[in-house]
Design goal:
The complex is a heterodimer of chains A (about 90) and B (about 120). Chain A has one domain. Chain A contains three helices and no strands. With about 120 residues, chain B is mainly α. Helix content of chain B is about 75%, strand content about 0%. In chain B, helix 2 runs antiparallel to helix 3. Classes of the chains: A mainly alpha (about 90), B mainly alpha (about 120).
């Protein structure tokens, strides 16, 4: 039962990742793209945790923690970049 | 058996919350409303999937790492969203046309102070 549920949840997360990347392409401003990429990193962490449940190995959880921290650092640096005026 | 049902419940809840976050990210009209969808639903979705993972493995190492993941997300997602929102507002991102309350325009500073 858990295998089937994990497959369904991973498909749903991949659809969410596709919708988030649609926003990355469409986004009118830079801040929209930054938010969409931050959410894509969140969904990647969710995918890694679902894969841990599906395969039964817990060696990928530190990768999830590091992706979360790196996405936070990237978002903060891009926020400072936007606040200083962007490319202008 | 009851543990499997709990794991499936939390995984499906996390997947549905992530789906809600993605649909809100795509369909909402404004940067600031989109940020609500992304940070709140996305954070709770990841936390729900981490809770399901902790119930599934049921060991102390995995539980501590899962608590670490949830704590990082609960700490960093509001801070990142707040910084992006402040930077976007100061750089002149327009609000939604039906926005009724803009407290920074009426009560706040002009956005020129140093921080």
């Amino acid at each position: 039962m858990i295998q089937v549920v994990c497959s369904i949840v991973m498909i749903v997360l991949m659809i969410s990742l596709g919708l988030s990347f649609v926003r990355v392409v469409l986004g009118p401003t830079l801040a929209d793209r930054v938010i969409a990429l931050d959410m894509a990193a969140t969904l990647v962490v969710a995918l890694i945790l679902t894969h841990c449940v599906e395969s039964g190995s817990f060696y990928y959880i530190p990768a999830a923690i590091s992706i979360a921290l790196l996405s936070f650092v990237g978002t903060v640096s891009l926020a400072i970049y936007i606040q200083r005026g962007g490319a202008s | 058996m009851i543990r499997d049902i709990l794991v499936c419940f939390f995984l499906i809840l996390g997947g549905l919350l992530s789906m809600v976050a993605a649909v809100g990210m795509l369909r909402l009209p404004d940067l600031f409303t989109r940020m609500h969808a992304a940070t709140k639903s996305g954070t709770v979705g990841v936390a729900s999937i981490a809770i399901g993972m902790m119930i599934h493995f049921n060991t102390i190492t995995v539980t501590s790492k899962g608590i670490l993941v949830i704590a990082f997300f609960l700490l960093t997602a509001p801070v990142a969203a707040h910084m992006i929102a402040r930077a976007a507002y100061r750089s002149g991102v327009s609000l939604w046309i039906l926005t009724r309350i803009d407290e920074w325009k009426t009560h706040g500073t002009d956005g020129h102070e140093e921080d």
